UniProtKB/TrEMBL annotation:
One of its GO terms (molecular function) is RNA polymerase II cis-regulatory region sequence-specific DNA binding. The keyword Nucleotide-binding does not apply. Pfam families: zf-C2H2. It is found in: Nucleus. It comes from Lygus hesperus. InterPro entries: Znf_C2H2_sf, Znf_C2H2_type. Keywords: Metal-binding, Nucleus, Repeat, Transcription, Transcription regulation, Zinc, Zinc-finger. PROSITE patterns: ZINC_FINGER_C2H2_2. PANTHER family: KRUEPPEL-LIKE TRANSCRIPTION FACTOR, ZINC FINGER PROTEIN 384. GO terms for cellular component: nucleus. This is C2H2-type domain-containing protein. It comes from the Eukaryota.
Length: 157
């Protein structure tokens, strides 16, 4: 369709003046929509409405296979692929350094750190750092679960 409204800062064109005005905020940094509960600000009302769900806990998008719920339809779509891959065995993400394959990109990213030694996950109770979320989660149990003892001595982390 015809797009008579043009941005003077880039090649963007819009069919409606209101859309152009919203676009112009990407250049000015204007963020008129503010959250009453935190410092979040945005240029789009729909983004503020979506953000407000983080405070209310509202998750209107529900998985029909498990108890997962999401604030956004896109997050539910990503989640649904985990079910498909679990049952199909599909592992589309491959490591360039070895034969490892993963069904989710985050699993491949965690795996890649076995080659680089990176440990981006840190414990907020001690100095422990981990290369994967699952390793950090296992470690976190050492702070909450009774630690094993040998002859009255605690085992180190």
């Amino acid at each position: 369709g015809e797009k008579p409204y043009a941005c003077h800062s880039c090649d963007y064109r819009a069919a409606h003046l209101a859309r152009l005005r919203t676009h112009l905020m990407t250049h000015t940094g204007d963020k008129p929509y503010a959250c009453d509960s935190c410092d979040y600000r945005t240029g789009k009302r729909c983004h503020l409405e979506r953000h407000m769900m983080t405070h209310s806990g509202e998750k209107p998008y529900a998985c029909n296979i498990c108890d997962y719920r999401a604030t956004q339809a896109g997050n539910l779509r990503v989640h649904m692929r985990t079910h498909t891959r679990t049952h199909s065995g599909e592992k589309p993400y491959a490591c360039d350094s070895c034969g490892y394959r993963a069904k989710q990109l985050r699993y491949l990213k965690d795996h890649m750190r076995t080659h680089t030694g990176g440990k981006p996950y840190s414990c907020n109770s001690c100095d422990y750092r981990a290369g994967s979320r699952s390793d950090l989660n296992k470690h976190m149990r050492t702070h909450t679960v009774e630690k094993p003892h040998i002859s009255g001595q605690e085992l180190p982390c």
